[in-house]
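Entry 14. Ran structure prediction on the chain below.
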Amino acid sequence: MHARTAPAFVAAVLLGVGALPISTADAGTTADARTRGGPTVTTDPTGTSPVTDLRAGGARTPVTEPLNPAASALSSVPVVPAAPAASTVFTTPVTSTDAVTPADAVAPVVFAHRGASAYAPENTLAAVDKADALGFDWVENDVQLTRDGVLVVMHDTDLRRTTDAEEVFPDRSPWAVRDFTAAEIARLDAGSWFGPQFTGTRVPTLTQYLDRVERNDQKLLLEIKSPEIYPGIERETLLVLRRKGWLDRAHVRNRLVVQSFGADSVKRVHQQRPDVTTGFLGTPRVADLPSYAAFTDQINPSFTSVSADYVEAVHALKGAHGKALRVNTWTVDDATNAVRAAGFGVDGIITNRPDVVREATG
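Output, structure tokens:
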């Protein structure tokens, strides 16, 4: 464990208890750098996860070492006996009634959305390292499957916005992630669009991403992206997590949450590994919340859809692990709305600017 800057509040967070063959070639050549409008932040659902501690101390310098994916085969994921029975950046006020935060309220846990993605290319190892340098334990990412069955960390279902795929593979429209092999994706520049200093940054595999989060002693809120187009992605994700040691008791209890916008996907994760903490990205009707509580531990709504009354309704129910459901809202990047979200009583805030949210709420 390394030192971090101590926030003004210690966030108390509830966590539930606790393969796919990775075969990809090393990143090859760096394609021509290009600029795509600078460090823009885009939409995405991002839920969150619990935390049991926040550490104090110094920052770490981001690492930019080359990627070197390894090939490996995994066996099936053991089923653990069941426990008792996520965006657009919003900076305008919501219409819900503001709540007043009690003087003794605990500050929400802050989740670095796709890493510290306001300051480094989203979903890259550079963004993970930037979150670490800023002193944040929790990072959020998105996983998808390549044509040859490798899990890569990428938000959009196509490669155009955050890589130079159109230049490197001009005849491969619409440049869908699932149409490329892991070795082909490893050739792409995933940093130049954000800034020239990130030229040559690569799209990490989930294996590489887990290695970096582990090295930094961070925690992971993992989103299974678009499960409807990736049959079996839940099992493949669990296999990689298991192979990298992320399904042991310590990780499952304190450092991992798996979430998705797909209710069926969250159910499948819960069925295959009932010990893993799960989150549903969205805002189910209050009347439907009990049915979600049967398979998830968190309800993670968009900031534009959350209110103090809704948070209270979620907190009134116990989730899949017999503890009160948690609420983590996304994506809040400004101080005004961060304070408002905290006033609603949310347990966590997912943000591209974690330092701004921490300063406003902690």
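Residues 270 and 348 are 22 Å apart (CA to CA). Will compare against last week's run tomorrow.
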